[in-house]
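Sequence only, no structure available. Ideas?
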Amino acid sequence: MKHGTGSGTLARERDALRTTVNVERIVDCPFSFAVNEAGVILALVQGPRGGSVRLPYRELGLPFGGAATHRVDVGFRRQRDQTEPGRVHDEIAFHWSARSRWLPNFHGVLRFRIESMKTRMILGGAYHPPFGLIGVAFDRLIGHRLALATSRDLADRLAQALETRWAAEKQA
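Reply:
I predicted one. Tokens follow.
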């Protein structure tokens, strides 16, 4: 009898239920500035009691406008970016815990690439929809669009914060 043979199957099945999200933005600031300042901005977002994630319902075409917020526990750390051979620089790994059984926890990474005099910011991550196959069905209908809209909003806010800080740095 082999021990642990079912765990690989379970892991593959669980990975098959995982949803990925990828968003890119061109940020009007130099690469070196973006890499250094993004960590500072994320530390401000994290705060002592967690951060909040906006749920932009408007982007989903739902009848009620605006953007609701949901407080989450946010954590991040710098680590070595292994995806670009030949260049040594950091990326920011992050996660948030939804603190709710109705919303998934999210694990992602924020990478930066040189884009001429600007910076390409790449936000990618994944989550497992809650409630098994029912959650997967909901995710395919609505949940993934909500996750993508939330990720776009986060990327937009981070890009705007980087550009604002860069403009202030240039004027100083």
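The helical segments are 5-16, 31-46, 132-171.
Hope that gets you unstuck.
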